[in-house]
Fold:
Amino acid sequence: MGIWSVAVYLVSAPGIRAQGVETWSIGNSLIRREVTLAGDAVRPRALANPLTRVTVPVAGEEFILYLTDDAVVPASEFRLVAKSVRRDGKTQHFSLRLAHPHRPIDAELLYTVSDDDWFMRKTVTLRARGKPFLLRDVDVDSLTVADVTTDLGGRGQPVYLADSFFLGLEYPAGFNLIEGGCVSLRHHPGKQVTPAGWISKSAVLGTGESGQAAGTFTRYVERIRIPSRSYLLYNSWYDLRKKEMTIERLTETYEAIRQGLAPYGVKLATFVPDDGWQNPQSIWEADLSFLPQGYTPLADAVEEGGTRLGLWMPFMGTNLDIAWGKEHGYEVATGERYYCLTGPKYNKRLREVVKRHMRDWRVGYFKHDFNMFNCREPGHGHLPEARYGFESNVDAEIEMLRYEQSLLPDVYLNVT
Structure:
């Protein structure tokens, strides 16, 4: 019987009890996590690597909420309402539904693992029972470990544990912290939680051979990443500047490259005008003084040669006239060097322009340069503190990338 089958048995039966404590095992033959229930309170118990037969005892909390009134609400204050296991093909989902006895908050812990994977995921879902509440920060895991090695950690970096485990948030702006024997996987939503619910960033826990935590993490990244591919492009950055970037000059450049590659049966995938095509006193409109038709004629020319048009377009407005934007009501980030991508007016306008350029210029590649996320300004759709502005802008960029992909599924998105 596999480990997850044992977990199913434990869920559907009274479970393993020792001195009034019930233990549940979640995992498969490659990874296992144990939680306990004592007096209807859920707590972490152990992380296990069946491959190396290493079990790391843990204490702490399955999550911690940091609320607007500076209250710290750990998972152990909640009480178990229901537990269930659901299989979807090779993937199994283990759910613990919780309710706080004194606060109008419901929670669900969801652990997900596939039969052949050496890693599992976890999320925390919150719902307000009635009036919404502000969630400032959240630890998706807060595990106390003793007498085991811990390494790395930080923003967007995994924690290596006991030489054969890795754990962290699947989120570039998350903080995976090692603090005095406690590993905390923290992010900063600064969001209102409503009865409709809110879901945390996912945490991942993985195992591998002894001494191979970093290598095991690299294998996990290779598993989840977009597959690499060969991609040949031209970028004008080292070639042409601003008003040199006319249709005539760029078409001549393209034709020279096309003819040079033709004897070898090679084509450019993308032809990319870099910085200089834009009117600074706009939100990513072409400079009509030398591009009266935008880049539609260039798109026509390169498509005849089997190439798509690409475009340099930093989301945050690098080399646009930010003072002009501020005068026109677009949300400017703290320091007034770039726009706040969370800002509703700027975000809406940017989406409109992206959609139009992808339609009229048939843009199939974007170089999204100069990604800057800090903002502390009020009225932008995030709390006016640095950590909330940063996370909100990272989320806004991820959503903008998804939007571009929704317009053209095979668009090449180069975040530099």
User: Anything to note?
Assistant: Residues 386-407 form the longest helix (22 residues). The CA atoms of residues 228 and 307 lie 20 Å apart. DSSP finds seven helices and 27 strands in the chain.
